[in-house]
């Protein structure tokens, strides 16, 4: 059994061939990917299968969705031990306005925010926009 298969099974996700391929594709990327990126990489696959795989990954804590303000949802694999809890695992995202890539900055955690009485947080997303390291050195 491969590491990918073990990871999927540890999250109660059956390791089908397509799920393994998509996980491997996402793991090889250093940036968050959009559904259209995955569609381009797996052009012979059905769009709904690809979308369902991303949603399955998201629902089972394998990947998280990023709203980087571009209007296109991006997805990135969660780091080991992440359970995407609001108070523990939220991290900073960076969107480069030059190359249009979005990256997770997992070492930079979003601190817990105390909301006023009666407010209940369901999600938080912090995206910093600017020029990434790769583009600024060119």
From TrEMBL:
Alphabetical keyword list: Metal-binding, Zinc
Binding-site residues for Zn(2+), renumbered to this chain: 96, 99, 132, 135
Cofactor note (record): Binds 1 zinc ion per subunit.
Pfam families noted in UniProt: FUR (PF01475)
GO terms, molecular function: DNA-binding transcription factor activity; transcription cis-regulatory region binding; zinc ion binding
Domain of life (superkingdom): Bacteria
InterPro entries (alphabetical): FUR, WH-like_DNA-bd_sf, WH_DNA-bd_sf
GO BP: negative regulation of DNA-templated transcription; regulation of secondary metabolite biosynthetic process
PANTHER family: HYDROGEN PEROXIDE SENSITIVE REPRESSOR, ZINC UPTAKE REGULATION PROTEIN
Protein name: Transcriptional repressor
């Amino acid at each position: 059994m491969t590491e990918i298969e073990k990871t999927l099974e540890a999250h109660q996700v059956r390791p089908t061939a397509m799920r393994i391929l998509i996980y491997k594709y996402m793991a090889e990327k250093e940036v968050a990917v959009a559904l259209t990126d995955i569609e381009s990489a797996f052009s012979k696959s059905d769009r709904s299968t690809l979308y369902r795989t991303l949603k399955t990954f998201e629902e089972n804590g394998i990947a998280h969705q990023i709203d980087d303000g571009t209007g296109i949802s991006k997805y990135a694999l969660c780091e080991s031990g992440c359970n995407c809890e609001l108070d523990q695992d939220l991290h900073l995202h960076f969107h480069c306005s030059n190359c249009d890539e979005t990256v997770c900055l997992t070492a930079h955690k979003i601190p817990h925010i105390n909301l006023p009485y009666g407010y209940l947080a369901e999600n938080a997303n912090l995206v910093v926009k600017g020029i990434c390291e790769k583009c600024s050195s060119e």
